[in-house]
Amino acid sequence: MQAISTRALSLGNALHDALEQSEFYLHYQPQVSLSTGKIIGAEALIRWHSKTLGNVSPAEFIPLAEESGQILAIGEWVLRETARQIKRWLDDGIEPVRIAVNLSYAQFQANDLPLIVNAILNEYDVPAEYLELELTEHIATKNPKHTITILESFQRYGIKTAIDDFGTGYSSLSYLQRFPVYKLKIDQSFVRNMTTNRNDYVIVGIIILLAQQLEMTTIAEGVENQEQLDLLKQLGCDDIQGYHISRPIPADEFTRHFLKKI
């Protein structure tokens, strides 16, 4: 317990200055269309290399940032850095793809979030079509009326939204069909075992069928092998993301391997 407490204190102190010290950076994990095999997007994932602690896992520092309230500033930095990178691609004559950014619970509670996001896109002169915002099923269903209001605002600005980690929460289907989202992201916990566990296979199939009936697209995360890919394709999943395609990689590496000149 003392070791855990000491570690938490060290992380908290280091995290306090991480933004100011420019210690955060983004990696991008490509997303692939199963029908064409082409890259259709990527997820922006934050990484932290502390000058005092070295590399720190997001699983360790994100909860701490949420607890301390720093997640708001960090979340806005991720949005700005994503817009900045998209603008770099456009300026360099490289055809960008839609980049997905995760929203935290604290961010999503702010009524002016759509205004903030739209202002960032305008600041960097980035078309809304290149940004996708993800919120977890848990966040979306905590206050459905607020969710609908915020998502409708995003929709008016032309910003697409997706439900992340779908299948892990307790969503009401009556609300799901009212959420103006275009994509459901199938949680990796189902994808991981779908080749050996029939229940997980069935759940994945039901999520895909549900999305199709609601005229939404689906993306499966955590795809690690060809067998999973083949099953997802058979079930009618639209897109995939995972180590079978690529680990999250730096922007320059992502550009070299997955993007092309306009």
TrEMBL record:
Gene3D superfamilies: EAL domain
Domain EAL span(s) in chain numbering: 8-262
InterPro entries tied to this protein: Cyclic-di-GMP_PDE-like, EAL_dom, EAL_sf
Entry-linked SUPFAM superfamilies: EAL domain-like (SSF141868)
Name under which the protein is recorded: EAL domain-containing protein
Organism whose genome encodes this protein: Marinomonas rhodophyticola
